[in-house]
Amino acid sequence: MKTAVVYKSVTGNTKMIANAIAAALGDECVYLGGAEGAPDCELYLVGSWTDKGVCCDEIKGFLKGLTGKKAAYFATCGYGGAESSEKYYDMLVERARKELPEGCTFLGGFVCQGKMPEAIGERYRQALEKDPGDTRSLQGLELYKDGLSHPDEKDIAEAKAWAAEVLSRAKGL
Ligand SMILES: Cc1cc2nc3c(=O)[nH]c(=O)nc-3n(C[C@H](O)[C@H](O)[C@H](O)COP(=O)(O)O)c2cc1C
């Protein structure tokens, strides 16, 4: 099945997942890259970094154009490690799904944590120097530290397994 992996990554986390997904798809992946220049395919695995709780604008626009296609969504985000992560990840997938036009068959989503830029960690550290009891900054710094190892090998293995599942689901339709 002619398949494209279309993604947007600013700091490399989503790119890492996109590369793993393309590898898992093997020869059926005919394109790995940005929205611009993506060829006509039957199946699209579309990925984005998370910006203020949604996919980035470039990917939003791309999702909107997938009339008559099969599509799945993947993302990386700063949130993770907590019990509520799964719920947050489901929400991100659901928000992306809502961007798809009628007549596009949605085949599911995958989200994992990605490290956040150093500047964000530094901002929390500075806030805590001023106010060591600032709980929001304490939680933020914990999240930042937790994210430093992601995407890790487990995330990558799970992304690959998910991509293989999406492909077999698409073939079964
Ligand atoms: C401006 C900005 C906004 C962000 N907004 C969110 C957000 O709303 N939720 C979240 O979980 N992560 C958020 N993040 C974290 C990124 O989505 C995360 O680090 C992601 O893995 C980056 O992907 P990339 O390396 O492919 O660019 C934000 C990061 C930046 C820089």
Keywords for this entry:
single chain, 173 residues, alpha/beta, Rossmann fold, 2 domains, six-stranded mixed sheet, elongated, binds flavin mononucleotide
The average pLDDT value, as a whole number, equals 97
Write down the overall geometry. elongated
Our estimate of the beta-strand percent is 15-25%
Report the major sheet: 6 strands, mixed
* Individual helix count: 6
Number of domains: 2
Provide the CATH top-level class of the largest domain: Alpha Beta
Which series of helices and strands comes N to C? EHEEEHEHEHHH
Helix share, percent: 40-55%
DSSP, total strands: 6
Radius of gyration: 17 Å
Examine the secondary-structure arrangement and name the CATH architecture of the largest domain.
3-Layer(aba) Sandwich
CATH 4th-level superfamily of the largest domain: Flavodoxin domain
The name of the CATH topology of the largest domain is Rossmann fold
The helix-and-strand class reads alpha/beta
What does this structure look like?
- The chain is of the alpha/beta class and 173 residues long.
- The chain has two domains: 3-115 and 150-171, Flavodoxin domain (Rossmann fold, 3-Layer(aba) Sandwich), CATH 3.40.50.360; 116-149, no CATH class.
- 46% of the residues lie in helices and 23% in strands.
- The protein is built from six helices and six strands; from the N terminus they run βαβββαβαβααα.
- It has helices at residues 13-25, 57-64, 85-97, 118-130, 135-147, 153-171, and strands at 3-8, 29-33, 43-51, 54-55, 70-77, 105-113.
- Strands 1, 2, 3, 4, 5 and 6 form a six-stranded mixed sheet that branches.
- β3 and β4 form a beta hairpin.
- α4 runs antiparallel to α5.
- Flavin mononucleotide binds at residues 9-15, 49-53, 76-79, 114, 116-117.
